[in-house]
Amino acid sequence: MTREDQPSHAESVPDEGRVRRQQGINTALYTQAERRRRDESVWTVVQGVLAPLQFLVFLISLGLVIRTLATGEGAFAADLSIVIKTLVLYTIMVTGSIWEKVVFGRWLFAPAFFWEDVFSMLVLALHTLYLVMLFGAIGTIEQRLGVALAAYGAYVINAGQFLWKLRMARLQGAQETRAKTDTQANMAAPA
Asked: How far is residue 102's CA from residue 3's CA, in Å, rounded to a whole number?
């Protein structure tokens, strides 16, 4: 084997979870090492705080946007709420990327969260488009708020994706706990 044929260090030490999922060995969301890193990371707590905060900001902003579209009043409050929602989104995206790096060794698009990250990029793009329209004085208030509503619709779908993954992680954890308990019980049982 020539030097060019030899795998690089990065290729010779592949991501354990990715390889297992590709080989169909384990379809679990987390390997044991990934779960341990997730549970030990401060970024897991940060995500756990920011996610409900973002949802609360979303609900308030959605109410203000609908009010403005329905009555024509409160445009400044609606705009301000969307800017705040976008800033919270940027914060959760940056901290979420750090979380993925800590847990999976990748800044984004870890196999376990690939489609959630893809959809997050759409959510981010729509929120950013809203900001460009607002600060660039592009379009009417209705057009701007229409983009915000599209961003919010994408956000709801994306939040659903992450809630589904949270449920899958909890089910996986419960299954692993049951398996460990069963193994210990079997080992303690007389032969």
From this structure: 32
Q: What is the dihedral of CA 80, 88, 163, 117, to 10 degrees?
A: 110
Rounded to the nearest angstrom, the gap between the alpha carbon of residue 103 and the centroid of all alpha carbons in its chain is 13
Burial of 99 (0-12, 13-18, 19+ CB in 10 A): buried
Q: What pLDDT digit, counting tens, does each position of 33-75 carry?
A: 888 999 999 999 999 999 999 999 999 999 999 999 999 999 9
Q: What are phi and psi of 37, to 5 degrees?
A: -65, -40
From 76, 87, 94, select the one nearest 145 (Cα to Cα). Answer: 76
Residue (of 152, 157, 90, 121) closest to 144 by Cα position: 152
Q: What is the pTM of this model?
A: 0.73
Note the residue count of the chain. 191
DSSP calls for 12-35: HS--HHHHHHHTTS---SS-HHHH
